[in-house]
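Exercise (ungraded).
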Amino acid sequence: MWSVSDDALVAGLAAGDRDAASAFVRRFQRRVYGLARMIVGDDRVAEDIAQEAFLRAWRHADAYDPRRGSVVGWLLTITRNLSIDSVRVRRPTAFDPAVIVGLDRESDERGPDDLASLGDDTQRLRAALARLPEEQRRAIVLAGLLGYTAREIGEIEDIPLGTAKTRIRTALQRLRLALVSEERAE
Amino acid sequence: MSAYSCAQLREVAPELALGVLGGAERAEALIHVNECARCQALVNEFTEVADALPMLVPEHEPPAGFEQRVLSAGRAERRRRTKRWVAAIAAAAAAAAIVSITVVRVVDAGNETAVVTTASEPVQATMMTPSGNPAGWAYVTNGRSVAIAVDYGIEAGDYAVAVHPPGGDAVTIGTMTIADYRGSWTGRSDVPLPAGSTISLVDAKGTPACHGTVERA
């Protein structure tokens, strides 16, 4: 079952296949739980959110369209949105973007095989994020992972709205450019 | 027609892709994106990056038993959905039974032998696979009307619907088709099916794929 593609697992999930459901949860549970935990900062709440994310994916597996993105991207987007909804009113106190995306670690809980399975794009994105100026990295992580609007980021960082917008835009453009230029360089 | 220009859209495209643009702005931006292929391409490029960001977050082992809790909750939810579906089928079968009984009563009324009869509540039989996994439900109404729905663990194909009353012989009362692990069937048994009767789906080789026992009303 571990050699089955992600798309095939979702198809099996939609068809009610018990083995596919089990393999689907096993394959993605560490990513889903890790993301929920990082955003909500509470193990118990993160577990509830991770469970709900899997149930939503299960419920809507027949509507999954591989042309609109990868299975893991789809599942993590569900997780991210559920997590953000649950902490909508919270403000980060000790917030470190490097910790959130694991840039502070030599290696996180992923083994070498798991890191390889992230794919070249994700590894490039990780490297590009590490090269961003600190204030831009904070802005993109606050917006892209924690779901804060430009206005909220302005309040958190004590900067004008326009500056917050510029930081988000510049960071995203640089990440995009890094991915595209490195793809072309290959 | 969108009030946004391409220049305005480019300003908000990153926030749109990251999903953090406020309601009214988001609506305006989406209208423009739907009408402008170039801006749509720009937003798609940013969205690719935005969708990849969550993958950077380090993985973490969930608490022990997480997988089983998710699977149990998922199966329970699926069973609830199927149960509602079967209940609807059973209700339709029960309604059909009332209509047929009414017709008989009208005919009998001509002979002044009217008997007022109504459909009874459906009686359930949980359909289980030979390995003991729940496959779906069957409902029996008035002891003879049968509604079956399965949504789990049965391979695609045609299956004989067999009924076996206690102390009686097994009788085939129809054929049910399953595709994508799902199928439903309604029909009538010529033999009465009291509590303890068995309802089975039998494959072409004569092997039961699942069976259930009619419960007490």
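Further reading is listed at the end of the chapter. For now, observe: The two ends of chain A are 33 Å apart (CA to CA). Chain A is about 70% helix and 0% strand.
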